[in-house]
Amino acid sequence: MKFCSHCGHTVAFEIPMGDDRPRHLCHDCGAIHYVNPRVIVGVVPYLGDQILLCKRAIEPRLGLWTLPAGFMENGESSEEGALRECWEEALARVRTDDLYCVYDIPHINQVYLIYRGELTDTDFGPGPESLEVELFHEDEIPWDDMAFPIMTETIQHYFADRKEGIFKLHRGVIERKL
Ligand SMILES: [Zn+2]
């Protein structure tokens, strides 16, 4: 950040009084421009023993498969955001069960909240950000063509829990790859 979004003056990058880390702050109008983690909301849409995946039509990871997910918007709950993403990317409607996976990725300042949700029908298809949308049995999952390790892990949890008949909340902190 170079200029204050409140008044247009040049901002400094320093530790504000009483704070413990540097922020972009404006010495002209006094605004402190906090930057906090972003929340990604998503869903594991399932039907019977199948789950729905989307093949990405956009970068990053164009052409690879993922669960419907995206950045949470202002003014919506995480569950509403997950349903919205499912509709936008897969034109699919789900009835959400529970929050299923929570992942923190501190080094890229992201938090993932992934729900489980049963498809209400099989009337789905690719939205603008997807090339294809398909239901997969466990043995049909394109494991080698998954876009994001977090989604791979979520799907592995899903099928393991399904075998046990108990879906529990999974939490994880993804550390920077060395
Ligand atoms: Zn300012």
TrEMBL record:
Keyword annotations of the record: Hydrolase
InterPro entries: NUDIX_hydrolase-like_dom_sf, NUDIX_hydrolase_dom, Nudix_N
Entry keyword annotation includes Iron: no
Coiled coil (residue ranges): none
EC number: 3.6.-.-
Highest taxon, organism lineage: Bacteria
MF term (GO), any: hydrolase activity
PROSITE patterns: NUDIX
Gene3D superfamilies reported in the protein's UniProt record: 2.20.70.10, Nucleoside Triphosphate Pyrophosphohydrolase (3.90.79.10)
Name under which the protein is recorded: NUDIX hydrolase
